[in-house]
Amino acid sequence: MFEGVLIRAYGGFYYVKKGDEIWQCTLRGKFRLGKGSAALVGDRVRVTPVRGTTGRIDEVLPRKTELFRPPVANIDQAVIVFAVQDPEPNLALLDRFLVLAENANVSPVVCLNKADLLSGRREHEWLRLYRKIGYPTVITSTKSSEGIDELRQLLVGKTSVFAGPSGVGKSSLLNAVQPGLELKTGEISSKLKRGKHTTRHVELLPLAAGGLVVDSPGFSSLDLPEMEKEDLGYYFPEFASFTPECKFKGCLHRHEPQCAVKRAVEQGLIHQDRYKHYLNFLEEVMQQERRY
Q1: Is 221 annotated as a binding residue?
Q2: Does pLDDT of 139 surpass 90?
Q3: Quick one: which of 35, 34, 5 has its CA closest to 22?
Q4: Is residue 49 annotated as involved in ligand binding?
Q5: Predicted model pTM
Q6: What's the fold here for domain 229-291?
Q7: What are the φ and ψ backbone dihedral angles of 50, each rounded to 5 degrees?
Q8: 113 in a labelled binding site
Q9: Of 55, 81, 113, 275, which residue is least crowded by CB atoms under 10 Å?
C-alpha cells in the first residue's frame, strides 16, 4: 500500500499521483456504498496496487480543508476570478464564495480578469473595496499579460483552486500562467451574456514553478454551507472591529438595538451592498436552520 494524491475523478475511475506516476484506481466497496468518506480531488489517499499502475483506494486520509463547490479537499487558497465585463461581475456571488472560503479556512484571493477591457480606468471601484477590507487582489489580462507574473508567484508552493462564473477566463489564465496546459477555453454567449462551460470536471494540475492548481467548472449560483447564524458575521472581516461594541453578545446585526455594525453602515464605514448581502445570507442561513 502507498500514499498518493487524488488528482482527477472521471468516468468512474480515480487517478492518483504517486511521484511522477499516475495510477488509475477504483474505490473500495465501503466508499461506493456510502459507508465511508467519499473521495475528493485533492485528497491524500492510501492505495493498494492491483496490477501494473492500477490500484484500489482503501483509505481517505484526514482533510485539512474541504470545499463543496467546487468539491475539492486540502486547498490552501481560492483564486476567485471575476471579469471586468463579459460577463458583468456579480458581487453577491463573489461575496458568497468569500463566505464559503472563510468558512472552510481557505485563504481567498480576488482576481479581476480581462483588464484590457477597463477602457483607461485602472480598476473597478468594487476591487478597491475588497482590497480595503483586506482581501489580497490581483488584476490580470491574458491579452496584455498584465498581472500574470504576479498571479504565478501567488501560486508557488500552494494548492490553489480557481473558481468563478463561466466565461470569466479561468482556464485562459491557467494557460497563461503555465503555457502547455492547453486547457479548453470558450467564448461568451452573445444571447445569454454568460460564459459557456469549458471545464467539465475538477482536476488537480501540477505547476512547473511548484504548487498544484485546480481548474473547476464555472457556476452561476452557489448555496451557502451549513453554519450557525451567529457565525456568519465572522465571515465579513470588516465587521470585526465593530462587533465588540454591540450591546448584545451574539448580535446578528439585523434588528437589535445599539448595534455597532448597523451604525457603521449608516456612517459609511461598512459598504451598504456588503451589508445587504450579509442580511440576505443571514435569512438563507436561518431558513436552513428551520429545515433541519
Answers
A1: no
A2: yes
A3: 5
A4: no
A5: 0.82
A6: Ribonucleotide Reductase Protein R1; domain 1 (1.10.40)
A7: -115, -60
A8: yes
A9: 275
Average pLDDT score over residue span 101-116? 91
| Superfamily name with CATH number, domain 2-60 | Nucleic acid-binding proteins (2.40.50.140)
CB within 8 Å of 122: residues ≥ 6 apart:
none
Domain spanning 66-215: CATH superfamily: P-loop containing nucleotide triphosphate hydrolases (3.40.50.300)
Q: Is 52 annotated as a binding residue?
A: no
**Nearest to residue 194, comparing CAs of 230, 229, 157, 219?**
219
Is residue 41 marked as binding? no
In the predicted structure, residue 217 carries a pLDDT above the cut 80: no
Is there a binding annotation on residue 169? Answer: yes
- Rounded Cα distance, 13 and 27, in Å: 8
- 116 carries a ligand binding annotation: yes
**Residue 201 annotated as binding site:** no
220 is in an annotated binding site: no
Write out pLDDT tens, residues 235-263: 999 999 999 999 999 999 999 999 999 99
